[in-house]
Amino acid sequence: MSGILTIDRKKLVLQAGQIQNGTPTIAVVKNNAYNFGLEFAVRAFLDAGITAFATTSLKEAEKIRSITDQSMIFLLNPTTEFEAVRGLDLSITLPSLTYYEKYREELSRISIHIEYAGLFNRSGFDNFKEVEQVLHHQAQMNEVERFFLEGLWCHFGYADEFDGNYEIERKNWLGFLAEFDRLDMTPEYVHAQNTASFVRDGILPGHTHTRLGIGLYGSKPYSGLNDELFVQPFELYSSVVQIREMDENMPMGYGGSFVAGRKTKVAIVDIGYGDGVLRKRAEYDCLINGRRYPIVSLMMSHMIVEVDEEVSVDDKVFIYHPDMRLDEYTFKGVGANSEQLATLNYNTLTKEISHES
Ligand SMILES: Cc1ncc(COP(=O)(O)O)c(C=O)c1O
């Protein structure tokens, strides 16, 4: 047996349901739904009552449309594929005044969400004056030539940090919304909040939707939160293929990557960085028979774990488990939740969907 990733569909639906807490939600399903599998996740989120989705890629948006013809599908990245957008009835970001000036003729009857740059600043309008220029220009066009103003949005880049920047970006964005409020227009979607922002603040005033990613998939955006609020719906494990007794100075692994310095026992486990176990993750432990043991060396398709008499060949070795949560390693500095998920290699891992719990 090599590495196995099991995803419990019922837990995913339950988690997606509970994190929303009754608030309308746009599910972020970019990058193959945080590597859970796009179609699988979209169907699970539909079951959890979600009817709006966001992704960065047209290809993924097309796939989502083939699954659900009623949902709002929002393209987060600027696109110039206007015919495809119209054909698939997608909603798109309006990312800047420059973009508007270049493509305004092509936006006719397309649903757009005006993006505010804020502190995150990946793209978006810098200030409300630029938005006014767009709206002024639109007002001069014939109705059939205009875009359809469906939404306003921005992204909080600091909500999972507690250094004061989140308060600044939130204030700037709420100021932008207040300026917009003076116009007599009410877009159907006003969305800015990722998981961290929503967990910190609940739904902010003037917002119609949250725009959640990692919380739907069951990981905590920052430490100190309750496990029950974030049910992790997956496990990653492999098994012990050999046990070796080691002498004090016996080297193991490439270039003798592990020398115990004492007589000890190690387990060889058939999962490695080729399956998506990050090198930083392997600086920590794994779970065998309910106990934690240190990973002492990581190779492409194996890792070495220092064990004791309790561990035998064929025992399951968990990298992620309800008692060994992915977010624990996020907070230990291994990498972002999404980074640990995105690296999992489905070409080598076996993926099993369970429907049992
Ligand atoms: C634009 C945008 N909105 C929302 C999200 C969801 O954030 P989170 O996964 O922290 O909930 C992301 C994630 O990267 C994003 O890029």
Automatic annotation (TrEMBL):
The keyword Isomerase applies. Pfam families: Ala_racemase_C, Ala_racemase_N. InterPro entries: Ala_racemase, Ala_racemase/Decarboxylase_C, Ala_racemase_C, Ala_racemase_N, PLP-binding_barrel. The modification N6-(pyridoxal phosphate)lysine is found at K30. SUPFAM superfamilies: Alanine racemase C-terminal domain-like, PLP-binding barrel. Its cofactor is pyridoxal 5'-phosphate. Substrate binds at R122, M300. This is Alanine racemase. One of its GO terms (biological process) is D-alanine biosynthetic process. Keywords: Isomerase, Pyridoxal phosphate. One of its GO terms (molecular function) is alanine racemase activity. GO terms for cellular component: cytosol. The keyword Isomerase applies. Residues 233-354 form the Alanine racemase C-terminal domain. Gene3D superfamilies: Alanine racemase (3.20.20.10), Lyase, Ornithine Decarboxylase, Chain A, domain 1 (2.40.37.10).
